[in-house]
Amino acid sequence: MKILAIDTSCDDTSVAISEGDKILSNIISSQIELHKKWGGVVPILAKRNHEERIDAVISEALKRAKIQIEQVDIIAVTYGPGLSPALEVGVSKAKELAVKYSKKLIAVNHMVGHIYANFAKNSKGTAYNQGLFESSPFPVLALLISGGHTEIILMEEHMKFEKVGKTLDDSVGEAFDKVSNMLNWGYPGGPVVEKFAEQGDPEKFDLPIPMKNSGDLNFSYSGLKTAVLRVAKEIGVAGPSKFEQNQKIETKSEELKEGDYKPSFSKKPIYKLEKQDALDLAASFQKVAAEQLVIKMKAAVKKYQPRAVLMGGGVVNNILIKTRLRSELKKLGTNLYHPQNKRLLTDNAGMIAIAAYYMSLREEYSDPELLDRKPRLSL
Ligand code: KG4
Ligand code: ZN
């Protein structure tokens, strides 16, 4: 069963081809360079760029998989959550292809995709996470940590999801992005904060671990962000915000029409700190962000006794977060899995193809006439 999957939920145009749960190709066309100068993703630019690239990315995915579109059985697409104008491009393309070539259509929740990236196999049929296939991994706890989500999901079986923990405000990825903006390190914030944190002293600033004693499995990151801001204000010099700096670019830019510019980055001032102070602040922030995840996941594992813990979302790239969780969960006798292939870690259509494969086993198809994007879709 061949699946062509599309994901245009945010700032990557991605198309993948799979044969069941074996990924044959997974093309990702990143827009990071386009959004960088704005300090965050500009939805309308994302939409235009998806529209410009989608056909070429589809052709490339088919070419790499060495198949023709006629040989595809199922078209799968992310229909939420994500940026509405961006989602729209993928959803309308998937509907168009499903109707034109008389294919079945599967609408996939992007967060389900992040979970199912863990169940991917390579083109030869070898599972990246072999342990998940040796015996039933259920019950599973999935920790979803991305730019828009920080959630713990309980799964008793495939495609059954119960949210048992969530953030009450910012997501962990958002906190990395905001701290990066605050220190003028650019977008996306996660990788750059991680890089600078490596050179800093994580014990230098005593930042609070939010929700430490809340007695539930929920998260909060806005207090931590405010604590970082307080330190930056105390020891740094405030300069104009990225927003103010970019006003100049905005008036010059030809790619933006009046009225369609919606910056998603902070209008708060940025702070200039002594280099070592900034590195220490990044390290102290990252340590606390990781510890909150560790505390909550340990509590979740004790409560639900899962056979496996899966991680998904862009923040899984963070090495400190991965290693801290792995060592702490190991002490509780629980194995931690995450997507092993770099492409499956960030936003990509390969994970959407894998989720669609498991949905196809349950015949969870959509009607192209009725399918619409759902920007706020939840698990
Ligand atoms: O899953 P993803 O690619 O997109 C969404 O669905 O949101 O996640 C993007 C998020 C961003 O907030 C980015 O800053 C964060 O993942 N991220 C990281 C790292 N790499 C990406 N956060 C911490 N450390 C990293 N190395
Ligand atoms: Zn994502």
List the topology elements:
Elements: E1 2-7, E2 12-19, E3 22-30, H1 32-36, H2 43-65, E4 74-80, H3 84-100, E5 104-109, H4 110-116, H5 131-134, E6 140-145, E7 150-155, E8 162-166, H6 172-182, H7 189-197, H8 222-235, E9 237-239, H9 242-252, E10 270-272, H10 275-304, E11 308-312, H11 319-331, E12 335-337, H12 342-345, H13 350-361
Parallel strand pairs: 1-4, 4-5, 6-11, 11-12
Antiparallel strand pairs: 1-2, 2-3, 6-7, 7-8, 9-10
Helix pairs in contact: 2-3, 4-13, 6-7, 6-8, 7-10, 8-10, 10-11
The structure holds 5'-O-[(R)-(carboxyoxy)(hydroxy)phosphoryl]adenosine and zinc ion.
Zinc ion binds next to helix 4.
Features:
379 residues, alpha/beta, five-stranded mixed sheet, binds 5'-O-[(R)-(carboxyoxy)(hydroxy)phosphoryl]adenosine, binds zinc ion
Entry summary:
With 379 residues, the chain is an alpha/beta fold. It contains 13 helices and twelve strands. The strands form three sheets. Strands 3-2-1-4-5 form a five-stranded mixed β-sheet, sandwiched between helices.
Q: State the separation between the terminal residues, measured CA to CA.
A: 26 Å
* Hetero ligands: 5'-O-[(R)-(carboxyoxy)(hydroxy)phosphoryl]adenosine, zinc ion
Could you give the order of strands across the largest sheet?
A: 3-2-1-4-5
**Average residue-wise pLDDT:** 92
Using the CA coordinates, give the radius of gyration. Answer: 21 Å
Work out the helix count: 13
| Total beta-strand segments | 12
- Please identify the structural class as seen in this structure: alpha/beta
Helix content: 40-55%
Unreliable spans: 248-254, 256-264
User: H/E element string?
Assistant: EEEHHEHEHHEEEHHHEHEHEHEHH
Characterize the largest beta sheet: strand count, sense, and whether it forms a barrel: 5 strands, mixed
